[in-house]
């Protein structure tokens, strides 16, 4: 069955067992029968696709019990709504892992909080200076620019970008990191940090005018593929004055062995946005994603002394 069987008003993930809760009154046209599997689109989360699996076994409590009373399901059966290709669930997984990590770090250990570390130790100020320099020069930051920093983390790098221009906005969905950003890294009234998922922000923001450059350093790889594509499309369409976008620190699929070496790795890890390093892409994949979304990509050489230069690269996007 490849047609959605209904539209739900409310779907809630239960992170423990991957089963989502669902208000059965949101499923007026549910036609699933016990033993069938069907995709289900949640109206609230247009970017999620769930599978409804109908079982003959009634679930004991909660939404399962209430669903089993639904006339469309009937027969005492029950339903599990399982995230199949859930972009939101994948993003939530990344957010939770950054949240846990940031909380475990000392409040002033800024570069450990955003994982600029080697074997757990924060990298040197020289290494950070290389990142700052690559973004500033890639974007050709000038005093008149306003920068949108997507996946800005705790703002420790953002403040260096803002210092080279007229300020801007940093967006990140990790509450601990945005709290640090607001506490330590707002230097001028024209600088701000906002707690939000970057895809939600790009979809809904009403302050899109005025940004002239955008950066996503060390964050783009954590977006599920459909989100990565949508984000680039939204930047192209809704942020009309943004002329350049810097995608930084992307893991290079062609050089994945240089990172893992002999260490075991989970099959398919390079395609999993919720894995520790996110999605690994080849330069060709970045070129084709950019072209599809209205951008021209240039792969930027990294400083050979940069600690991750052997398996990462930077990209500059310009409007096609
Ligand atoms: C490696 S850190 C990089 C932080 C900062 N840009 C830097 O380079 O120091 C990755 C950041 O991406 C953020 N992130 C990942 N996916 C996101 C999303 N969908 N919306 C907002 N932030 C996201 C995480 O919370 C985390 O702060």
Automatic annotation (TrEMBL):
A Pfam cross-reference name: Methyltransf_25
UniProt cross-references to InterPro entries, sorted A to Z: Methyltransf_25 (IPR041698), SAM-dependent_MTases_sf (IPR029063)
Domain of life of the organism encoding this protein: Bacteria
Stretches assigned to the Methyltransferase domain: 147-235
Protein name, entry field: Methyltransferase domain-containing protein
Organism listed in the record: Thalassobaculum fulvum
Classification lineage: Bacteria, Pseudomonadati, Pseudomonadota, Alphaproteobacteria, Rhodospirillales
């Amino acid at each position: 069955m490849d047609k959605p069987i209904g539209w739900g008003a409310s779907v809630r993930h239960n992170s423990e067992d991957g089963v989502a809760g669902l208000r059965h009154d949101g499923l007026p046209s549910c036609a699933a029968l016990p033993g069938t599997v069907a995709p289900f689109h949640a109206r609230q989360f247009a970017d999620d696709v769930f599978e409804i699996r109908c079982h003959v076994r009634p679930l004991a409590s909660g939404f399962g019990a209430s669903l089993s009373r639904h006339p469309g399901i009937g027969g005492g059966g029950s339903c599990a709504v399982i995230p199949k290709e859930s972009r939101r669930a994948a993003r939530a997984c990344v957010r939770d892992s950054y949240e846990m990590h940031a909380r475990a770090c000392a409040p002033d250990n800024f570069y450990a909080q955003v994982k600029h570390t080697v074997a757990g130790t924060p990298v040197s100020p020289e290494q950070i200076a290389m990142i700052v320099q690559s973004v500033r020069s890639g974007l050709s930051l000038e005093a008149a620019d306003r920068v949108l920093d997507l996946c800005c983390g705790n703002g420790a790098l953002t403040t260096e970008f803002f210092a080279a221009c007229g300020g801007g906005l940093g967006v990140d969905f990790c509450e601990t990191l945005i709290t640090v950003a607001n506490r330590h890294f707002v230097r001028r009234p024209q600088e701000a940090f906002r707690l939000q998922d970057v895809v939600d922000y790009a979809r809904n923001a009403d302050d899109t005018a005025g940004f002239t450059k955008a950066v996503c350093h060390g964050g783009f790889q954590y977006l599920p593929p459909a989100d990565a594509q949508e984000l680039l499309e939204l930047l192209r369409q809704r942020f009309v004055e943004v002329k350049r976008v810097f995608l930084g620190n992307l893991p290079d699929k062609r050089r994945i062995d240089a990172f893992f070496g002999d260490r075991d790795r989970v099959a398919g890890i390079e395609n999993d946005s919720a894995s520790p390093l996110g999605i690994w892409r080849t330069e060709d994949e970045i070129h084709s994603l950019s072209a599809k979304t209205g951008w021209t990509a240039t792969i930027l050489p990294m400083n050979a002394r940069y600690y991750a230069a052997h398996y990462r690269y930077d990209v500059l996007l310009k409007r096609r």
